[in-house]
Amino acid sequence: MVIARFLAALFAAWVVGWSWTLLDPHRRLARARSAPVGEIRTRPAAEVPRPARRAVFAASASHDFVHAGGFLVLGAAIAAAVKVLVPSEHLTRLGGQVLTGLLTMAALAVLVCVCSEADAFVAASFTAFSSTAQLVFMTVSPMVDLKLVAMQAGTFGLGFVLRFVSLTLLACVGLGSLVGMVAL
Amino acid sequence: MTPPTHPRPAALPLLLLASAVLTLCLVVSGQAAELVRPAMVPLLVIAAAVLLMLFVAAHVATEQHGHEQSHHGLPTVAWLLLLPVALACFSSPAAVATHEAGQQLVVEGPGRGQAIAPLPLADPIAVPLNVYSDRALAAGASTLDGRTVLLVGFVAPDPQGRGWTLARLRFRCCLADARPVRVRALGVAPPPSGSWVRLRGTCVPSPPGDLAQVHVESVEAIQRPSPPQLP
Predict the structure, then answer these.
(1) Chain A residue nearest residue B62, CA to CA
(2) Would you tell me which of A71, A104, B185, B206 could form a disulfide with B213, CB atoms 3.0–4.6 Å apart?
(3) Which residue stretches of chain A have pLDDT < 70?
(4) Which of A7, A3, A8 has the alpha carbon at shortest distance from A106?
(5) Which of B34, B158, B35 is nearest to B105 (CA)?
(6) Regarding beta strands B164-170 and B212-221, do their DSSP bridges make them parallel or antiparallel, or are they unpaired?
(7) The complex's ipTM?
(8) In this complex, is the C-beta atom of A124 within 8 Å of any C-beta atom belonging to chain B?
């Protein structure tokens, strides 16, 4: 399972990274919307006096904190609402069939937003599901979840999120199932 | 119309200060140790210190450049950062934890593949709830035969309505992914739900796929341990 998880995640990252590079050579889609301190970036850093550089550093850090933090709160609020309103215990009864099992685990990974340190234990507790479905859960969960999606939407815009999330989800579910069928 | 003489407090320093104060309050009041693993608390202190430095820098910048420029470009979504501050003022993580453990049906299964050594010889012997559950559910459970154990946890209702359960949360990372370890207590009337108790009892075999069970000889009310979750 450890090796399978490593391979599935690595393949998914490769596929998403390469297809993004090939489909969008000028990286127009992934340009960050927020530019906290504009004009000073056009000058070489060495020409700017040290106190001004420090001020720009602090201003950028503060801006990034409140911007990303705001979207993190939004994502966490959605995740908490889902956790309370959607009883994951009932979803686990869908574990019987192969395809619904895979899709349910992928959907759970997006909805419950487990941090990657803990997802293996959570996956292991879903004993009703096949090990391939558990692998899909562990492949999707660090790459796509509600908190990440909210932060990406804030930084790169909705259009980016739609393309990126669907591509990543497809790659994770597809490659996770493939590796699971071969290796588990 | 004359412009207002008193400038409104700038938003960015306010948000940074609020976040730093919230973090420090959680650490000082001990609530942080109930929300994240104790090992992560020092990181929270460092984060609060960095936020305070950013607050000072943002405050100085506001004083120098005036209100308009510093407010320019602050995204609306940043105001959501005040939401956790408000939440911390009006709710307590302890209540959340108890509620959570009472609700969840998916519990930690027994650890797999670990060799089970005999317990030390003390009698009665204090056993962490997860260790008890693992040993009681292990195939051919024999390490608990004839042993009197002391278990610590809080009282939670039994989802199947047979007796009551002793529960304790186990963190992997933080409260959001905490899972309860639960053991069904048999033989005595349930103490008040949510109260912390120490049980003295003996192991009773449980049906396959069910919770570990304990036959209780005596129950003693105790103070809430700190931190309350299992190590």
Answers:
(1) A59
(2) B206
(3) 25-46, 87-96
(4) A8
(5) B158
(6) unpaired
(7) 0.72
(8) yes
